[in-house]
Each structure stands twice: as structure tokens, then as C-alpha cells.
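Subgroup meeting minutes
Present: P.N., E.W., G.H.
Scribe: E.W.

1. P.N. recapped why we're keeping a running log of single-chain structure predictions: easier to compare across weeks, and new members can see raw inputs and outputs side by side.
2. G.H. added today's entry (119 aa).
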Amino acid sequence: MVMEKNVARERAIEIGNADRRHASRLHLQVPMFVRGTDAYGEDFIELAKTLDISATGAYLTLPRALLKQGMLTLTVPTPSVSNSGLVPASMPPISARVIRQKEVGDIHLIGVQFVRPLD
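Output recorded in log:
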């Protein structure tokens, strides 16, 4: 419960900074595989989720610390719906740079900026 209140407080602070945004944010929880190197130099792949997402970046929750300016690869898991070609089998990975992070309890809130804005 305390961790949820801390996350809510952090989101309120971030929302207050919305005037600096280049794109509108959606408060949307999207599962993502995050691949990169953590603050201790260890390569990892974790299933994370977004708290907010926009065309230019995302705010993620992860159980590990990362290096500021570190590069990540984000992949949205997609189920195989059909082979008809009407629904893409997957979306390409997203390259992102860590621009900020905050430790809240046993999780890290990670702000990333996409290398290229999403279409």
C-alpha cells in the first residue's frame, strides 16, 4: 500500500511537468520486454510495464537500477492471432535511452525517450 502511494505521488509530480512534453501522454499499462545492461554492468531482459506512454517516450516500472543515458530495447509481446496477414505478427523493437529514474520501494520508475518517435 505504501509503495502504491509513493508511485501515485511520483506520477502526480511527473504530471505537473507535462508542459515540457513534446507529445501527449496516455496513462496506459502496456507490458514490454526490456533488454539492456543494468547499473551493475549485467545484461538483462525483464518483463516490465508502462505507467505512461507517448509517441516520444514512456515511464516504466522495473525491478532493477539502470544507468542514466543507457540504451534499452523495448519489445511489446504480441500473441500470434493468425497467419492471414491482416494482423501484424509483431511490432519492431523500440530503441530507447534512459533519461531519468527513481527508486520507490523495491521498484525503479524509469523514464525513457525513444530514439525515433512512434508512428
